[in-house]
Amino acid sequence: MLNAFFTRAAQKAVLSKRMRSRNAIKAGPSAFRRAKVNATVLVAMAVNEIVFAITLRRGDPLFIASVAGILCGAIMASGVHHAISYRDSAPQNTDLETTEHGRSRTSQSTHHADRRPPPTPGAAALPALAHDARVTATRCQRWVVLSLAALLVLVLAAAAAGIRTPLLVVVALVTILYLVDLLFCAYLMTGSMRGNNRTPAVNPREREWWPTYTVLCPMYRETAVLPQFVAAITKLDYPAESLQVLLLLEEDDHETIDFARGMDLPGSFEIVVVPDSQPKTKPKACNYGLHVGRGDYLVIFDAEDVPEPDQLKKAVLAFAELPGAVACLQAPLNFYNPRQNVLTRLFTAEYSLWFDLMLVGLQRLRGPIPLGGTSNHFRVEVLRGLGGWDPYNVTEDADLGIRLYKHGFRTGMLDSTTYEEANPDPRNWIRQRSRWIKGYLQTLLVHTRGGWDLRHTRNPHFFTFLLVIGGKAMVNFINPLMWAATVSYFLFRASIGPSIEALYPAPVFYAAVITLVFGNMLFVYTFLLGSARRGNYDLIKYGLLAPLYWLMMSAAAGKALTQLIRNPHYWEKTKHGLHLDAGADQTAGRRDNEVLR
């Protein structure tokens, strides 16, 4: 009955939605094969509601909590049906052959030219991806979500009736999840501290010939930081005749196009106008640039990036010394404005933790590494063979890192840093972080519905993928209510203490205590350790504010979930150049500060 009710409601919503959308597909059963919420998202929401329920007293309050949980499950079930997955006007990779979105404008500079390549025999279209984020959820995934919603209703209803065994099981499973994540992170931390597990450092040396290197810089409304980017790339220690720098500008971004044309760009720079088509995402522009690029190696830089001058040479030499299975090198990222405010200090500590400790630990495991959004160096033939980037995934970097591993390739960490802007504005930061979390959820959905199926693989790194991609996204949903339950227990122990204690038998209780005490200690400590490893000793004390930072991440996760349901392919634009407006201290946590000179 409940399922039929929501199905009818969803059908009405689908028809209404599609009448307003030019790009929507026709209404029918196919709409329900594209659900927008993963089963793991619903599990997180269910756990949150259960935690609230167990913190209340018996009687009416517990009944009210149970009803709230039922409504939550119903809303999630309705959202699954209501979420509409549509085919955008430009299919994947076909926009590389588009020639009818307007003519390429004549360049006003003698040093560079606007490029929009016509289809040529030598520049074949990229192979189609077996699985992508165009379809957010399959029919099977939708039914998994509905089944979990029904299970949630039954668990809460049983708890309201005084049958708490199902709730005990759920609490135990959540505790196990936290404990496994704690042990996994501790293992990665200890592994990253061993120098022999890092990619060997390569000292740039002169050689007679350097291969052609393509630099992609997709940008949209980035006039504030474009001069800084041009200056940074100009300082790269790489032969200009072997360097191809492609400024990938969207066709409707007339301001940036005109601004770039008015600059005196070096001869290695080319303005590439990307046709105005959907989805309007960074990976779509990168695929267009991959079609134009002529290099043997390729790297992506964001508009605000300042890479170390020797990075390209280090990458070439590292690729030459490493086995061919290493198809990608990830340069660590950090910030040149870490001391602008408290948020940038915490952001810097997080980046130091992620790129200098976590990813190095994953490299030691020889498992899948989710790439950062910039400073990914590729062997071009491998990248083209994999089909480039998923244009519908808003964290195309993480998705590509997983695909590299699934196809038998490895990712190494390059001994060279790229510095970028730490987001100093909380609202802008949440916009950026919500896109990242939404993309991780998309990646989780894509790679759990095909190609990496437990029925067809015994690869233990499937669980590494679940912990790194799924676990890191899910804890943002679980954490706030777990903290609320803990605080409520100590503040109102006399009234709700017995109800909570009844859900924690001795083994589960001790495991929960370990995750509460040692887990929080570990994650705060790693924040401090990340700053110390970068030499940012004055930022160490700010690591104690990590719990406040985690709360912001949870707020961003809520926004990400909403967008995943309503607008999965929307690219939340991050405003750059805020460090220039504030006149922030241009330091990168290094004593010499040579990177910006």
Would you kindly provide a written description of the structure presented here, covering whatever features stand out?
The model is unreliable at 1-111, 116-122 and 584-597 (pLDDT under 50). This protein is an alpha/beta fold. The radius of gyration is 25 Å and the shape is globular. The chain has a domain at 109-128 and 210-452 and 588-596: Alpha-Beta Complex (Spore Coat Polysaccharide Biosynthesis Protein SpsA, Chain A), CATH 3.90.550.10. The chain has helices at residues 2-19, 39-54, 60-82, 139-160, 165-192, 226-234, 254-262, 282-292, 311-321, 342-365, 380-385, 396-406, 426-447, 461-491, 493-501, 506-533, 546-566, 578-582, and strands at 114-115, 213-219, 243-250, 269-274, 297-300, 306-307, 326-330, 333-335, 376-379, 410-413, 418-420. An 8-stranded mixed beta sheet has the order 1-4-3-2-5-9-7-10, with helices on both faces. A 3-stranded mixed beta sheet has the order 6-11-8.
